[in-house]
Amino acid sequence: MIGDANTDHAIIKSPEKEGAYRLFLYVMDGYNPVATANILFYVRP
Q: Can you give the pLDDT at residue 33?
């Protein structure tokens, strides 16, 4: 869940349940997608 986003940064709230997750990011310039990222992370209690 993205809590806040602008052109400089984004604040992302992680899930409350423990486990492995994957975050997909897509950056667009208003015309076409210009970049993608796939970030793995693990949530611990």
A: 72
Residue 2's closest CA among 32, 24, 30? 24
Instruction: Tell me the pairing of strands 10-12 and 33-43.
Output: unpaired
Q: What is the pTM of this model?
A: 0.64
Q: How many CB atoms lie within 10 A of CB 12?
A: 14
Of residues 26, 11, 19, the one with CA closest to residue 40: 19
- 7 sits in the region (left: phi over 0; alpha: psi -120 to 50; else beta) called alpha
**DSSP string spanning 17-36?**
S-EEEEEEEEEE-SSSEEEE
